[in-house]
Give the backbone structure.
Amino acid sequence: MSQNEATTAPAQGEFARGWKVLAAASTGAGAGINGVHFYAISLFLIPLAQSHDWSRTQVSAMKTFMTLGLITTAPLVGILADKLGVRKIGIISMATLALASAAMTQITSSIVVFYIALFLMAGCGGGTTALVWTRGVASWFVKQRGIALAITATGTGVAGVITPPLIGGLIDKYGWQAGYLGIAALAALAIIPVYFLFFENNAPVPGTATTEAPIQTGLEIGEAVRTRRFWQNGVAFLIIGAIVSSLTVHLVPLLGDMGLSREAALGVAGALGGAVIVGRLFTGVLVDKFHPAYVAGLFLFLPVVSMGIFLAAPHVTPLVILGVIMVGFAAGSEVHLLPYLTARYFGLKHYGKIYSWQYVMFYSGVGVGPVSFGYVFDQAGSYSPALLWSMPILAFGALMITFLGKGSPMDAKAA
């Protein structure tokens, strides 16, 4: 697809016109920093600890420093994406991520150098996150934007499936350095579809009421931050990110604390992955058909029910499995609901800047929540207090999403 094709596409269905962009975005998301890299963290823990004589705790901080790198660079990526276009940012960031991943093979036994390298690597991959891919996809899809963004997000789910056997196999056979070279190769290969297929749509979308291209419609960053919805959405997702990420990170030990054996806990936790993918696609379909704030509020409320089950019926295995599935639905839906709601309420004109700050708030919660859950457990010797406190807090966050209201970027100035 060329830029000329992007601006002169015939009045076909949105998927008929935008499937190439969608395929490239899904591939980029899977090969990017939030895809293969994050799913590979657990694969590197023991090999790195053994190779450099680091403790498990020291190596476990990998995600923390990578998240810090993403949060720090997100506002800059947002500015550049709006100024230069997401295609250029995606290509450049994917290339630098590939180089940075390969450079990880040269780290020394200094844990400080390792942390700095992780931070810088994540910064290099800041343009391979949803911030970039979702803007490109959203410019092609209006009526079917929900399912399109959900499919984009499934790229990371596919990465979760292929990473353990592929990267884990390289590590087991050739050492941890081979794992990073494998990740670098995947990032480099992803440049090909991004280069040839990933374009923003600079023309109006046929079948919609407006004669303007979606990419040209929306609020300035200054206008957005003065609205109720900017802060209501951001704070809600900070809360939701903190608690849902805590439940997923601590799920296996939480199930063990409820009396399940490790083998049984791992078996029950296996339902989480499938629920993430189903929840992602299901909510994508529903937000295109019903009021998206209501759909989002409902799905993001589900873990409240899960925590109630974990507290009240920890020995009833079918109910516990149901609770885990509901956590998975929320964990899957939050990934694409944040960009969807950002595009819906603030438009795409300055989407990069606006979404970058929503992203920072969300991932601040993701970074803090699991640590807080762990601290409560260490102090109380049980996850029960954390679950009790989290239920009303998460319910409040879901309620904030539910009452975002109807509207468009134009009437958001008054909201």
In short: The two ends are 38 Å apart (CA to CA). Residues 218-404 form a domain with the Growth Hormone; Chain: A; fold (CATH 1.20.1250.20).
